[in-house]
Amino acid sequence: MNVQMVCLADQYISHANAKFPGSVHEAYILRNSSIPYVMGQLQRHCVWLLGDSGYPNLSWLLTPGRNPRTRAGERYNEARGRTRRIIERAFGLLKARFRCLHITGGYLVYSPKKVCQIIVACCMLHNLALRRQVPFLQEDGPDGGVVAAVEPVDSEDEEAEEEDIDNRNSEILQYFQ
């Protein structure tokens, strides 16, 4: 399964979409979710999401700048990378707490529909555990963390992508100059 998640700074999962098989690209999942609509509404309140390089450049989705040419661009990438680690920690905590979601814990031998339900249930239980401050007893694992690799998206609309890159660049100049 390819799971799209949005988490808050405190690692609460505010959105989990587990409807698509692993072969489906992140950009496709994003386009077919409620996130673009919600973020369109929230953008006037200066709310952005951070995404990795597998996502398209959108006015409300901050992705890494490729080959930054200025110190401001470098600082943007550094700050974005530090902040993005929050979701990587949330993924790691979720997979460590619910070993059925981690490759070393086995795999789920159920129908795809049931696997999706289990993933969403684990996300809900993750939030409940955080809210109730359930202590987490971490076992030593072989990899200690989760690393995701995603290929860049080829945009179908070059002009829209250039406009979104300009939006990101204006944000970089405003906040990282």
Distance between the termini: 40 Å
Shape designation: globular
Beta strand count: 4
Low-confidence parts = 144-158
What profile does the largest beta sheet have?
2 strands, antiparallel
How helical, in percent, are the residues? 40-55%
- Helix-and-strand structural type: mainly alpha
Averaged pLDDT: 80
> Largest sheet, order of strands side by side?
1-2
Strand coverage percent: 5-15%
* SS field, number of helical segments: 5
Radius of gyration: 17 Å
Element-level helix/strand string: EEHHEEHHH
Report on the architecture of this protein.
It holds the Pfam family DDE_Tnp_4. Its main location: nucleus. InterPro entries: HARBI1-like, HARBI1_dom. It comes from Pleurodeles waltl (Iberian ribbed newt). Residues 152-177 are annotated as: Disordered. The protein is mainly alpha-helical. It is built from five helices and four strands. The chain has helices at 26-31, 35-42, 71-97, 112-131, 158-176, and strands at 2-7, 13-20, 49-50, 61-62. It has a two-stranded antiparallel sheet. Strands 3-4 form a two-stranded parallel ribbon. Helix 3 crosses helix 5 (158-176). It is globular and about 50 Å long. The N and C termini lie far apart (40 Å). The relative contact order is 0.16. The model is unreliable at 144-158 (pLDDT under 50).
